[in-house]
């Protein structure tokens, strides 16, 4: 099965990091994985930043693996579920976020 990678970049509201981490890890990720077409999810915390622009001002990234043949439908369903009982959102998350979907253009290289 071909997959796409759906990247979401977020940050917590100031002083809300613990609540944000708890919600994202224990509530949000499982609710997103429950969406048809989502295969897997994993969160990452930033450990280093090097950029010549302020475009990477995000503290966290989530990487979702989604089915390639239905990626637009899957992402539309994720957004349709936001702020419903199927996908409870948290006030601890900064309202600004960024996302993008990518398709592989090379095989994975390993040493």
How would you explain this protein's 3D organization?
This protein has 111 residues and is of the alpha+beta class. The protein has helices spanning 17-33, 71-81; strands spanning 3-10, 38-45, 60-67, 98-102. The chain has a four-stranded antiparallel sheet with strand order 2-3-1-4, with helices on one face. The longest helix has 17 residues, at 17-33. The model has no long low-confidence stretch (mean pLDDT 93).
Please outline the helices and strands.
Elements (H helix, E strand, L loop, with lengths): L2 E8 L6 H17 L4 E8 L14 E8 L3 H11 L16 E5 L9
**Strand content range:** 25-35%
Q: What is the rounded distance between the termini?
A: 24 Å
In round numbers, the mean pLDDT is: 93
Number of continuous helical runs: 2
Main pleated sheet: 4 strands, antiparallel
Tell how many strands the DSSP assignment holds: 4
List the secondary-structure elements in sequence, H or E. EHEEHE
Classify the secondary structure makeup into a structural class: alpha+beta
| Low-confidence regions | none
Which range best describes the helical content: under 10%, 10-25%, 25-40%, 40-55%, 55-70% or over 70%? 25-40%
What best-fitting shape do the alpha-carbon axes yield?
globular
């Amino acid at each position: 099965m071909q997959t796409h990678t759906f990247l979401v970049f977020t940050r917590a509201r100031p002083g809300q990091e613990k609540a944000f981490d708890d919600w994202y890890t224990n509530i949000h990720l499982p609710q997103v994985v429950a969406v048809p077409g989502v295969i897997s999810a994993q969160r990452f915390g930033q450990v280093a930043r090097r950029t010549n622009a302020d475009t990477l001002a995000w503290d966290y990234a989530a990487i979702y693996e989604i089915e390639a043949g239905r990626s637009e439908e899957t992402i539309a369903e994720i957004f349709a579920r936001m702020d419903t009982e199927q996908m409870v959102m948290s006030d601890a998350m900064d309202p600004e976020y960024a996302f993008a979907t990518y398709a592989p253009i090379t095989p994975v290289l390993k040493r």
